[in-house]
Design brief:
This protein is α+β, with helices and mostly antiparallel strands and about 450 residues long. Helix content is about 15%, strand content about 30%. It is built from 7 helices and 24 strands. Strands 15-24-21-16-20-19 form a 6-stranded mixed β-sheet, sandwiched between helices. It has a 4-stranded mixed β-sheet with strand order 1-22-23-6. A hairpin with a 6-residue loop joins strand 19 and strand 20. It is globular, with a radius of gyration of 25 Å.
């Protein structure tokens, strides 16, 4: 038996978090009620005779989870099915790959589903300079007046972008927009034009323009436009330095399309929207110098949740760039961790990346998970369970499904078979107030 074809399908699926979220299938429903823990205990342990004591408040805050349809269309041609005979079953392969792709997209929705418009970024400031481009390899910006805009992107907007620019971790924080022209994949997830348009004057052909703006807690990235042309798409950061201007990028969208009425709110949107409790903190710099074996901003967030609810996150979810920054900063602390040498090459030994964060409360090891569906600049402190007596909350997050993933076969058209992986459900967050998000974490 020729096993080459199935062997080529053995690869890791980039939806690690989805596999850990419970799924509750409830046929015959299009929504489900939930109870959310929204506030901490108030008042005193003691009560007067004949007077009720205080306790935990389990309230119906946004009690209904409305199910949303999710699907991924696929197809294969009659010729491909014939050509695959005696080698592999094209029909089954395309169905398998289609379902895996749908699962990966569902993981992105678990993090970044967004029903509410992100709005317009504020506080755009520009800092032109006549020199600086050549020193970092830029082509320079000629003397002229330029109109600059910045727009926020949802998770879907970032996913549909052709490329994401990483602001250089060197001091210059350079991005040469003249060398790479990204596309925004349509207007989905990109907000309306920046209302506060700034006019800046460039310098010589060595000129640069520095930009800063205010963040939006639920945004996964930002698009920068100059003279109505897209220059770069950045992860959740609020500054960059342009060392070149392109004149072929896509135009500023004319309407706010960051909200998706067909979606459900994911983890980030639910934590940001939590009325009380949840810590939503702008870092506005890199993770800073470690204090002992602690990153101060992360330790503060963990401490805040413990002070309010006596709970600690079960895991920290980060993108690869934040994970790399955590690893480098904590590795510099003497006796902080054991470096496991796993490869020696021409550049010297390589060490296993930091996998746990020491709790500032009791020293327990909190797993650090590198999440492929986060684009950078964010740290999520999330719970798996809700360790509060009598809360009757089985898990912090759960997928409620009217129907889990099924295969729908459509008609054969031009001889091509179309099919779809389809499901019907939504993410239920039972305790978003007990969790935290750090955003605008800049590179170091």
């Amino acid at each position: 038996m020729n096993l080459e074809a199935p062997a080529k399908l053995l690869y890791p699926l980039l939806s690690p978090y989805r596999q850990t979220v419970g799924r509750k299938v409830m046929g015959g429903k299009n929504s489900e009620h939930k109870r959310i823990l929204t506030v901490k205990p108030s008042g005193s342990l003691f009560a007067a005779e004949g007077v009720r004591a205080t306790g935990w408040a389990i309230t119906k805050d946004a009690p209904t989870v409305s199910f949303k349809s999710m699907g991924q269309l696929g197809d294969y041609t009659w010729e491909s099915e014939i050509a695959g005979r005696n080698y592999e079953d094209i029909k089954q392969r395309t169905r398998t790959l289609n379902l895996l792709s749908a699962m990966q997209l569902e993981e992105g929705a678990i993090f970044g589903g967004n029903v509410t418009a992100l709005g317009t970024p504020t506080g755009l400031t520009t800092t032109p300079a006549t020199t600086g481009a050549a020193a970092v390899g830029g082509v320079g910006i000629a003397a002229a007046t330029y109109q600059v805009r910045v727009a926020a992107l949802s998770h879907e907007g970032m996913r549909q972008a052709s490329r994401v620019a990483r602001v250089d971790k060197a001091a210059a924080q350079n991005f040469d927009a003249s060398l790479v022209v990204p596309t925004q994949g349509g207007t989905l997830g990109i907000t309306a034009a920046q209302a506060n348009v700034a006019a800046v004057v460039g310098g010589s052909t060595d000129g640069i323009i520095g930009l800063t703006w205010n963040p939006i807690a639920g945004a996964f990235g930002f698009a920068v436009y100059v003279d109505n042309h897209l220059q770069c798409i950045l992860p959740s950061t609020t500054k960059c330095t342009l060392t070149g201007i392109n004149t072929t990028g896509e135009a500023v969208p004319g309407a706010d399309s960051s909200a998706n009425a067909n979606a459900f709110n994911g983890m980030v949107a639910q934590i940001v929207a939590a009325a009380t409790g949840s810590m939503k903190k702008r870092v506005n710099t890199n993770l800073g110098t470690p204090s002992g074996n602690q990153i101060t901003v992360i330790a503060d967030a963990i401490q805040d949740g413990y002070d309010q609810f006596k709970v600690q996150p079960d895991r920290l979810l980060v993108a690869w760039d934040v994970h790399d920054q955590l690893d480098r900063k904590l590795a510099s602390v003497a006796n902080d961790r054991i470096n496991l040498n796993y490869m020696v090459g021409p550049e010297g030994p390589k060490f296993e990346q930091l996998r746990f964060y020491p709790s500032p409360i009791d020293g327990r090891q909190i797993p650090i998970e590198q999440q492929p569906n986060l684009y950078g600049g964010q740290v999520l402190g999330v719970l798996d369970g809700v360790p509060i007596p009598d809360s009757e909350i089985p898990a912090a997050w759960q997928m409620h499904m009217g129907s889990d993933w099924v295969l729908l076969d459509y008609a054969v058209v031009n001889p091509k078979q179309e099919f779809e992986s389809r499901s019907f459900g939504a993410l239920a967050g039972y305790a978003p107030a007990l969790q935290f998000i750090l955003y605008d974490v800049q590179r170091a």
